[in-house]
Design brief:
The complex is a heterodimer of chains A (209) and B (363). Chain A is α/β, with parallel strands linked by helices and 209 residues long. Chain A has one domain: 3-Layer(aba) Sandwich (Rossmann fold), CATH 3.40.50. Chain A is 34% helix and 25% strand. An eight-stranded mixed sheet of chain A has the order 3-2-1-4-5-8-6-7, with helices on both faces. The relative contact order of chain B is 0.13. Chain B is α/β, with parallel strands linked by helices and 363 residues long. Helices cover 37% and strands 17% of the residues of chain B. In chain B, helix 3 packs antiparallel against helix 4 and helix 3 runs antiparallel to helix 7. The chains are: A alpha/beta (209), B alpha/beta (363). Chains A and B meet through helix 4 and strand 3 of A and helix 9, strand 16 and helix 11 of B.
Chain lengths: 209, 363
């Protein structure tokens, strides 16, 4: 826990997003950051402006890439799953994957590539173990939705519905090291029973050296 | 913005082919003001048929520059902030030494005795010009198509002298298809009896051949969609021909008035010979010394310089984790898009240059 959050029971809001606030606390100044699926570059341009980071992004949508470059972000238009292979080992201090791990075809491969090209991976994902998701599933018997991902199953970008516990099991199996974990519910920090109470989980992960 | 073309003469220039040209003239224009520490200079490199008149109004012809939409006060290349330079390429016919110039050794016009030139030669001549203007390091080199080849050449050969590079709708080397189209153009010129082995100066110009060459060129600059929308199957009632025929004929005949057929031959050959990675292991190896920040732009409907060619450059840079932004802009205008899609390019060029300027000032 950082000093700032000890005094403040609420996670600071950054650009309206609790996970962004966590990223901004994690990322050290003057580092090199790759944001996979960086959208219009709002997080990266904030980090460049406020933390003087060398900010790089990958985004598939041309309209978003245009906005990102216009903001001064070095954004590459491409598929995040395919593009990682081109980057050399250890190219970045941090590789960020925000609310996207559940969308990629091969999450483990993406995580491994993130930990190859970056010294650390920062991953935020929706926790499908949240009590509301469980309850809805139990009561309605239908495919899971979350507040942030209210899509129907047939037009949802999500293809993997995993939970905080699932992710922890993967980390243990792959023998990665978790440097930090923060759980959020409605941009508010969750301190207990994260698999049940967290809407979003943020992990800072590295390979064990 | 009223502008004028200036000319600078250099004693000599040694070419890649081993021949030394002496002297060499370069025609160029500048826009905006060079700042006190000479850190705000941007070189614009022109495409195949362009010239030094990139922006503003030519007082004699009243014509706007070929990229006037992108260069000027408040525009993408903002002349209120940056000092912008554009020069006519070596081998050209708009004031810089080319096959239509007089060979001082003989007192005759060069014609086909002009030595073979390369994109590298063009860039070394530009480097001379930049030096002579007292500029050690360019803030940016930017250009589309053949201009983009020059941008890549600058970044590869003079990595310490280019803070940033914007290659647009271009390639690290011509494909067989691109060479093939150029060859059709060259053969059209050489098949014109008025070409006369390149000795037509002072006589009848090989206008028919040059016009056909240009017509082929214009087809490759457009897309199926843009031609369908612009012309469809509409006919010119007065002439009994299709609109597209009329357009191409007009473009062809207009070109004859402003372009030298021998320059067409030499410059297209220079484009075909260009291979950024020639003699090197890979593109990555060529660009690895470069600290230059890149903004690479391609267009969805550009089938003459397809996006995969730009992506090859981008991926070579990414393999060394070099700073490269890349976007494939959506456009229906084919290769012409780099001249037409002004709003999108303005937005991204401004954002990119702003970031590069901040980085340069921090050094």
């Amino acid at each position: 826990m950082t000093a700032a959050r000890q005094h403040d029971p609420f996670v600071r809001d950054l650009l309206g997003r609790g996970d962004y606030a966590i990223f901004s606390e994690i990322v050290a100044p003057q580092t090199c950051v790759l944001d996979l699926g960086c959208g219009d570059g709002e997080l990266l341009s904030w980090l460049a402006e406020n933390k003087d980071v060398d900010a790089r992004g990958v985004e598939m949508d041309a309209a978003k890439v245009q906005k990102a470059i216009a903001k001064g972000v070095s954004c590459y238009q491409g598929n995040l799953e395919e593009c990682l292979a081109d980057y050399p080992d250890g190219a970045f201090d941090y590789v960020i994957l925000s609310q996207t791990l559940q969308e990629v075809r091969r999450p483990l491969q993406v995580m491994n590539e993130m930990l190859r090209v970056g010294h650390r991976a920062i991953v935020a994902f929706p926790n499908f173990g949240h009590w509301r998701v469980r309850l809805a599933h139990l009561l309605t018997g239908r495919a899971p939705k979350t507040t942030r991902f209210p899509h129907e199953w047939y037009d949802s970008p999500n293809i993997h519905f995993f939970t905080v516990d699932d992710f922890e099991i993967l980390v243990a199996k792959e023998n990665w090291h978790i440097e930090k974990r923060v759980f959020l519910d409605d941009n508010r920090e969750v301190k207990m029973l994260p698999n049940l109470l967290a809407e979003t989980a943020v992990y800072l992960v590295r390979r064990k050296s | 913005m009223v502008v004028s073309t200036q000319t600078k003469r250099f004693d000599s220039l040694e070419l890649d082919c081993g021949v030394t040209l002496a002297p060499v003239d370069v025609a160029y224009q500048t826009y905006g003001t060079l700042n006190a520490d000479r850190s705000n200079a941007i070189l614009i490199t022109h495409a195949f048929s362009g010239d030094a008149h990139a922006a503003g109004i030519d007082p004699q012809t009243q014509q706007k520059g070929w990229w006037d939409s992108m260069i000027g006060p408040g525009k993408g290349f903002d002349t209120d902030q940056y000092f912008v330079i554009c020069s006519n390429v070596l081998g050209g016919c708009r004031g810089t030494t080319g096959p239509g110039s007089v060979d001082p050794a003989t007192g005759e016009i060069f014609g086909m005795t002009f030595p073979v030139i390369t994109i590298g030669d063009m860039v070394r001549l530009q480097a001379r010009l930049i030096e002579s203007l007292g500029i050690e390091r360019l803030l940016c080199v930017a250009g589309g198509s053949m201009g983009g080849m020059q941008v890549l050449e600058w970044a590869a050969r003079f990595p310490d002298r280019v803070a940033s590079a914007i290659p647009i709708a271009t390639t690290p080397r011509h494909s067989a298809q691109q060479i093939a189209f150029n060859e059709v153009g060259r053969q059209a010129i050489m098949a014109d009896p008025d070409w006369n082995d390149g000795n037509y100066y002072g006589g009848k110009l090989p206008g028919r051949g040059l016009a056909v060459a240009r017509m082929v060129g214009h087809i490759t600059y457009m897309s199926d969609e843009s031609m369908r929308q612009k012309f469809g199957r509409r006919q010119r009632e007065d002439q009994g021909i299709f609109e597209v025929e009329s357009y191409l004929r007009y473009r062809g005949s207009q070109f004859v008035d402003r372009f030298d057929a021998n320059s067409y031959l030499y410059i297209t050959k220079a484009m075909d010979l260009f291979d950024l990675a020639a003699g090197q292991q890979s593109l990555t190896a060529v660009l690895e010394r470069s600290k230059t920040k890149f903004l690479v732009i391609s267009f969805t409907s550009d089938w003459l310089y397809p996006s995969y060619q730009s992506q090859e450059v981008v991926n070579a840079l990414r393999r060394r984790n070099q700073d490269v932004a890349y976007i494939e802009l959506t456009s229906k205008y084919g290769h012409d898009a780099f001249l037409v899609e002004v709003d999108e390019q303005t937005e991204i060029v401004k954002g990119f240059l702003h970031r590069v300027t901040k980085g340069v000032n921090r050094r």
